[in-house]
Amino acid sequence: MIYRSKAPLRISFAGGGTDVSPYPEERGGVVLNVTIDKYAYASLKPRDDRKMSIHSLDYDIVAKYNMDEELTYNGELDLVKAVARNLEVDQGFDLFIHSDAPPGSGLGSSSTMCVALVGVFQQWLNLPLTHYDIAEVTYHAERIDLQITGGRQDQYAATFGGFNFIEFLKDATVVNPLRIRPEYINELHYRLLLCYTGKTRLSANIVANHSNAFRRKEKTVVEALDQTKALAIDMKNCLLRGELDYFGELLHHAWLHKKQFNDQISNAYIDTLYDTARNNGAVGGKILGAGGGGYLLLYCPFDKKHIIAKQLEALGGQIVEFSFEFQGLQTWQI
Q1: Which fold has domain 182-319?
Q2: Is 245 a catalytic residue?
Q3: Which residues of the chain are in CATH 3.30.230.10 domains?
Q4: Which tens digits make up the pLDDT trace of 125-178?
Q5: Who's near 110: CB < 8 A, 6+ residues apart?
Q6: 159 with 188: CB under 8 angstroms?
Q7: Are residues 167 and 173 in contact, defined by beta-carbon separation less than 8 angstroms?
Q8: From the candidates 78, 90, 154, 171, which is the catalytic residue?
């Protein structure tokens, strides 16, 4: 028997950063996001011994471990080790993992892979985990065990899927699925443009900088995070009411506030891409994820989208086709 899972990557429209501790514990965070048809995949085949073999296509690594020995975190496939530890896996297996987006691309690929790993182990071991359980196991493996700095939105987005307004409170996380009219969703998709900058970055370092700045109560960062939270609420209401052009304008303001988190959010190349898009008619946009590289999301007039795409490609950007994905984590066996 072979067990498989896939979890969708996500686009974050607004609120990113307010899901990073200690902001949600002190002030309450919110994030507006949607999953797309790009995925992290895991395939598992049980073994009769206590060895595990892991093949990561993304990192071009094949590693083998003996489960009778302690699994140490050494930077090699640590996500797999952390999930296996959290779920108390004690049987050998062969695992094959890969993702549609490179790590550090801003689509939540690392956390999404972690969700796919929890999913494939759950399917194999028949574990009674709810969606909230899966997201929390993923969060614990990444943020607590491996101490990778970051927020909570990616784990929940990949597990639940679809359009969600997620509230991060001191003692709980609440996922609010949004019931958006189909014509609004179609129009939003028609107006969005996704451009890969060709550069990835280590998100943990960028996130740590603005998290530490919040701890120091630096006024600029605190105000930027508060404004980001307010914009997430306004943008959620725009989607529900179909006020999409206003949504695009707020996306621009969200980017301006995000750039206040720290000076690693953007760089000269990202600014050039964004300014070129705006000069050719884009209403708003932002770098996805922590910033510093990855994917640039833009909201465009329908009759200028092709012009903006051509200009970005001339600068080295890569236009990526995508669709919204309304399902979260999926598992099956063959």
Answers
A1: Alpha-Beta Plaits (3.30.70)
A2: no
A3: 3-179
A4: 999 999 999 999 999 999 999 998 889 999 999 999 999 999 999 999 999 999
A5: 79, 103, 142, 148, 154, 203
A6: no
A7: yes
A8: 154
